[in-house]
Amino acid sequence: MIILLKIAAIILALLFLIKLKWDLGLVLFLDAVLTAVLFGMPIGDLVRQAGAALVARETLQLVGILILVLYLGHLLQAGGHFKRMVDALKNLITDSRLILAIPSAFIGLLPMTAGAMMGAPIVEEAARKWNLSPAWKTFLNYWFRHIWEYSWPLYPTLILAASISGIPIARACLVQFPFTVLAASAGLVILFRHLPYERNEQADRRNWKDSIKVFTSIWPIFLTIILIFAVRMAMLPALAVSCILSGILTKLPLRTRWEVVRKSVSLRIILLTAAVMIFKRILETSGALEAVMTIVSPTGISGIVLLFAAPFTIGFLTGVNQAYSVIAFPLLVPIIGREHPDLVLFLFAYVSGFVGILLSPAHLCLALTADYFKAEMKDVYKILIGPVCVVFIAALLILIILRLL
Residue 200: what are its φ and ψ, rounded to 5°? Predict the structure, then answer.
């Protein structure tokens, strides 16, 4: 019971400070200190372990990856790549209904805070012919923007969760890719059931140049994926190659280039990553994770409940994508497995957390998109709950069939 109270205090302290809008990196560091105190870790050991976490190769690689992901996103946005892509897509799509989904999905290939707002004006324009309600426009823009977060290796949430769990990012992406397909399919089924087919006459003027324009507008993203999955290059050098080439080939004024670099080398992201790795190290070395193992069986129903409850609760309450990865996954490592992580358990925990994010009223993308379209949140939830349940039930069935039966 005492161990449960200590773990509960750690989680509640995190959620309380996040609710107060404290910086997530500072919150994680303070919670690492709280963990050390609660589990009787000497101050000297705390300092040594925190220092070791800061200079660990894993930490430095993670910082580099996140900075390069931010750089690539800001560079493509500043270079007008997305505008060219969307203009070309309008000339390629025969089914007008797909214009409500595909541009948002393409924009979702590149992680960015409140990125759904980039697709909102496109959905607004495309939806005029159907006179869609604000709730439907909000759902379509919001849902398709987020279909990639299950498996796209540029998303910090997935990068952090896989790194903390000791799973190679390529393996995590391949295992979870069916959920991207499922999410896209669920969204399209709902879209097609709600709207009748209507041919896009603008597509009659399409030519091969539009197809090339779609590819060339975001070629650095495709190059990164090819280097990771086909060439088997590690993520950090793959991103570095893409960033260098895109920086050389993208025509931008020197002042704009400097602004891209300034935004990319985010001190907040660096400190957050450092705090994540310190928190993870203190959980491992203070005896907290061993204590969790004494009260939670990794094969019992209590372990399964924790795999769902921890990431879902944190995701739903905070609405911060990275939060459920950096807070819940260090606690779940003993259940998922240290030496040989269980990909099925990892998938279930990850999907549980992301379902919490999708439903969270604190999620910035959902809040801003609903505000943009002047939609009532309750009306959005009536549409959103269906596909969210489809995704979660699929993850639950996989868990039951492959691990519980």
Answer: -90, 105
Q: Which residues of 42-67 are buried (b: 16+ CB within 10 A; e: fewer)?
A: eeeebeebbeebbeeeebeebbbbbb
Return d(Cα 230, Cα 195) in angstroms, integer: 39
- Following CA atoms 384, 308, 351, 299 in sequence, which dihedral angle do they give, to the nearest 10 degrees? -150
The per-residue pLDDT for range 331-376, each reduced to its tens digit, is 888 889 878 899 999 999 999 999 999 998 767 778 778 887 888 8
Q: Which two tokens stand for residue 274?
A: 């450092």
Token code pair at residue 176: 């979870």
Residue 279's Cβ-count burial label (10 Å; 0-12, 13-18, 19+) is buried
Rounded distance, CA 164 to CA 160, Å? 6
Q: Strand, coil or helix: what is 199? A: strand
E strand or H helix at 31: helix 24-38
Phi-psi region of 166 (alpha: psi -120 to 50; beta: other; left: phi over 0): left
pTM for the whole structure: 0.75
Q: What is the pLDDT of residues 225-239, one digit of tens each?
A: 788 778 888 878 988
In angstroms, the Cα distances linking 175 to 4, 69, 382, 397 are 32, 22, 30, 15
Number of H helices, E strands in the chain: 21, 0
Range in 98-102, 180-184, 269-273, 336-340 with the lowest mean pLDDT: 269-273
DSSP at 250: S
Instruction: Please tell me the distance from the alpha carbon of residue 309 to that of residue 211, in angstroms, as a whole number.
Output: 44
Structure tokens at 160: 């952090």
For tokens 């959620």, what's the residue?
Answer: 15
Instruction: Write out pLDDT tens, residues 237-290.
Output: 988 998 899 888 888 888 888 988 888 887 877 887 788 788 878 877 887 766
Query: At residue 72, what is the residue type?
Result: L
CA distance 242 to 265: 17
What is the enclosing helix (H) or strand (E) of 299? none
In whole angstroms, give the CA distance from residue 184 to residue 145. Answer: 10
Is the predicted pLDDT of residue 202 greater than 70, yes or no? Answer: no
Quick one: what percent of the chain has pLDDT higher than 70? 91
Residue 348 is predicted with a pLDDT of 97
The pLDDT, as a whole number, for residue 118 is 60
Q: CA 185, CA 163: separation in Å to the nearest integer?
A: 29
User: Rounded to whole angstroms, what are the CA distances from 403 to 344, 345, 396?
Assistant: 8, 8, 10
